[in-house]
Amino acid sequence: MAWAGGGCRRRCSEFAGLLEDQLRVLGPDHPDTLRTRHNLAEWRGRLGDAAGAAAEFADILHDRLRVLGPDHPDTLRTRHNLAEWRGRLGDAAGAAAEFADTLHDRLRVLGPCHPDTLRTRGHLAWWQGELGDSVSAASATAGLLQDQLRVLGPDHPHTLRTRGQLARWRGELGDVVGAVTALAGLLQDQLRVMGPNHADPLATGRDLTRWEREACS
Predict the structure, then answer these.
(1) What does the angle CA 94 – CA 57 – CA 75 come to, to the nearest 5 degrees?
(2) What is the pLDDT of residue 217?
(3) Confidence (pLDDT) at 1
(4) Is residue 105 domain-resident?
(5) Which of 29, 120, 170, 172 is the most buried (most CB within 10 A)?
(6) How many CA atoms lie within 13 A of 39 on its CB side?
(7) Which of 47, 79, 99 delimits the end of a domain?
(8) What is residue 4's predicted lDDT score, i.e. its pLDDT?
(9) Tens of pLDDT along 140-155?
(10) From CA 178, how far away is CA 12, in angstroms rounded?
(11) Given a cut of 70, is residue 173 above it in pLDDT?
């Protein structure tokens, strides 16, 4: 998926300019320089260059492993993002495997309640579902939602997004009416929290329309 638009292009330009200055002033191995490279790779991917994002994250991971070590949160963050962009390039199995490995290390280093750990759990569940295992995806997403409600609260964007993913997997498992009900409730909460022009309620509205059609077919 690409998030094309002037905002993405502006961020890419800003990060590219910042990176040039950081390379000159701080050098290539400074943590801030590596962090800017990470952010620039992410925004380039959002503009549609998934292959370039994946390649750059692979390079950043090599450098972060060398400079920061395997257990540094920034290194783990790059592993997470690399797995995501590889999945978007079509390697769902590789993405799921890497998210499973990253989750193991994030649990060990950060603990089960850290937001980064919860985020990796969500991505792992998603790619399990993309591989066709909707049962595991639904079970993992339901467990994640309970922990997000406890740790992040009901109105956190990640919590709300997980509700949408859970509705999808339940619909895929045959509970179309349940998916419609869940998405209708989610949409109301997203509109309250985010407003009508945010990308998340717009996406939920499209998902709701899809499952309403499924329910009527």
Answers:
(1) 90
(2) 82
(3) 40
(4) no
(5) 120
(6) 18
(7) 99
(8) 46
(9) 999 999 999 999 999 9
(10) 40
(11) yes
Average pLDDT of the chain is 95
What CATH number is given to the structural domain containing 66?
1.25.40.10
Question: What is residue 5's DSSP assignment?
Answer: S
Residue type, 126: W
Q: Is residue 209 part of a domain?
A: yes
Asked if residue 212 and residue 170 are part of one domain, the reply reads yes
203 in the same domain as 160: yes
Q: Which two tokens stand for residue 126?
A: 């998603």
Whether 95 and 21 map to the same domain: the answer is yes
93 and 6 co-located in one domain:
yes
Residue 46 lies in a domain: yes
Residues 6+ apart with CB under 8 A from 119: 80, 158
Distance CA 76, CA 37 (A): 15
| 42: containing domain | 1-99
CA distance 81 to 5: 21
In this structure, what token pair is assigned to residue 110? 């950060």
Gap between the terminal Cα atoms of the chain? 28
Q: How many CB atoms lie within 10 A of CB 9?
A: 14
How many CA atoms, within 13 angstroms, populate the side-chain half-sphere of residue 61? 16
Which are the contacts of 31, defined by CB distance < 8 A and separation ≥ 6?
67, 68, 74
The domain tally of the chain equals 2
Per-residue pLDDT, averaged over 148-173, amounts to 97
Q: pLDDT by residue (tens digit) across 15-53?
A: 999 999 999 999 999 999 999 999 999 999 999 999 999
pLDDT at residue 62 greater than cutoff 50? yes
